[in-house]
Amino acid sequence: MVDWKKIKEFIFGATVYDMVRTLEEYIRSYNRLTALALFADMLGYPVCNYYRLRLLPHYVPFLDSWKRFMLRETDITDKL
Hints:
Elements: H1 4-15, H2 17-38, H3 40-43, H4 52-59, H5 63-71
């Protein structure tokens, strides 16, 4: 009996898995940059923009994870 789920996962991994991972990383980077524009006051960067208040309710659930990401100590060799 053929296990179609395993075959499907193998084909997915062999063809588009890297593209999906790259796209997810781009989405995370975009969300972090948008959150930086919205919550820059918390880091001491004054940003005066009325329109960011319209986006604020959408990004409040991501506030805790964004704070952890921004305050984490990083090294230049982390991305290597």
